[in-house]
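Q: A reviewer asked whether we had any structural model of the full assembly, not just the individual parts. We don't, so I'm hoping you can provide one. Inputs are below.
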Amino acid sequence: MDSHHSYSQVKGVSTGTTILAVKFNGGVIIGSDSRASMGESYVSSKTINKLIQVHDRIFCCIAGSLADAQAVTKMAKFQLSFHSIQMESPPLVKAAASIMRELCYNNKEELQAGFITAGWDRKKGPQIYVVSLGGMLLSQPFTIGGSGSTYIYGYVDAKFKPDMSLEEAIQFSTNALALAMGRDNVSGGVVHLVVITEAEVKHVVVPGNKLPKFHDE
Amino acid sequence: MATMLQKFPSSVSTLNDYNALYPDWTQREVSTGTTIMAVEFDGGVVMGADSRTTTGAYIANRVTDKLTPIHERIFCCRSGSAADTQAIADAVTYQLGFHSIELDEAPLVQTAASLFRDMCYRYREELMAGIIVAGWDRRRGGQVYTVPVGGMMTRQPVSVGGSGSSYIYGFVDSNYKPAMSKEECLKFTAEALTLAMERDGSSGGVVRLAVISEQGVERQVILGNQLPKFSTV
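A: Here is a predicted structure for the entire assembly that you could use as a starting point for your response.
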């Protein structure tokens, strides 16, 4: 379909992808698929990890040009750890998101990557921030991104409830990613989820054969 | 279109915004950028559509009826260029009516779908039309056929189309169950169309529904303030 032409303009490896983050009662879940593609028909990696840890309780997930995203997250990780040492306390999620935003906004001509930053901090608890392509920063209770996200807007709008339990939130994220991977041919592989709470960070992987199946499969 | 003043292409930089003299809608074709849907159930079909027709950024008609009768128990949902789909629907209505008189019995839904397909495929270079054909006949009961841009035709138990359909694939995939009742299909269609209308700028207005069965056609309209509500408002 013509709507996919924008991805052929992204240079090199692109994470045509599906990413999401959702707040639940006590934490956030950040999740993604695991496919990296070049153009629309070559899968350059089946098992890429798009969930980057930028600090103990703060993760980012990336969509767009993989090269740009890796460069920005590397820079952000460095700046954030420096900031954290200066402040002598764990950084705020908003600080991490602001660093990403500064980098994206000041380099908007060259970069082609969008980010979701999610995590937990002492001040405001679980939070999710979206930094979009041009460098806008927005806080949301849940968010979806990447090429596969168009197919699940209806599903997440219908199914999201504020203050879900951990199990409900995991089910919600897994279902949403599975549905997107089922319709978007540049998203696929396994589902990576990271659950961030005050106490711990837990990485959950749902392999292809354990994904939820829907009526026509 | 207005031709007195010269219009500059957007690649040429101008001192003033000359192109602001020409509102967007004078240059754009009328399009039913839209969300359409049809679901089969045992005994008939439920069809639904939004009601927005746009010319660029202007909503030319906010109460459009995109559910067009082709025969007594066969309707089609139209998406794409309004002119193209109206012309195709008129032509198929004529052809099907003639065929039905020759046969001296009610036409099959598959016949109507084939007529749409033949026209959409033959003139595929000139047309921009995505059509869902649905109805009831005595041989196979309720059927939904989709004829997307390009001119292929396939039967599906549930089909969505138009610009807003991308946003509801996930919802439709997860919520559809085979063997739903008529009321469940109506609720499913209304919810799916509402979700698409919330996200797609080219879809909106009211939800128009039609149920086609052996008994005939029942039509309903769900107005904006009566649409189903979801918690993310």
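A: Points you may want to mention in the reply: The longest strand of chain A covers residues 113-121. The first helix of chain A runs from residue 5 to 8.
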